[in-house]
Fold this protein.
Amino acid sequence: MFFNLTKENESKKTIMVMPNRAMPWQHIMMFYFLIAAITLAIAITFFIQGLTLILPFAGLELAALGIVLYISAWRSNIKELVSITEEKIKIEIGRNAPEKIYEFDRTWAQIVLERSWNNWYPSRLLLRSHGKQIEIGKFLNEQERQRLEVELKKVINN
């Protein structure tokens, strides 16, 4: 599930939006060490046979794979917390703690699903109020973004 709606009481509702994570960090590390062990075993075998350039290139490949896996895991750890009270809509974006906080007046807030001018680019789910706007759920796919739009409109307009 990509979002979770909770009601703390009748006047405050919270929606947590987060990307689907393929694997937890421990599994990613196990996968990396397995690939590293296989790659190094093959590279060392060729190194012993006299092909000395295999080992540095294997190290470069493993470093690149490690960087890509780390960035992917880091990006999938983001959370967006949308808190809706009688007067305000508060959006907190961050990983372990809020890094950015936005507040909007609920009375004037609009949820807009802005479609791209061509089908190659995904739509954008925007919360707008008084000339300010923020995109919610950048990491969601199209169907999830549409479901989130319906849920947010239902909660905000009630």
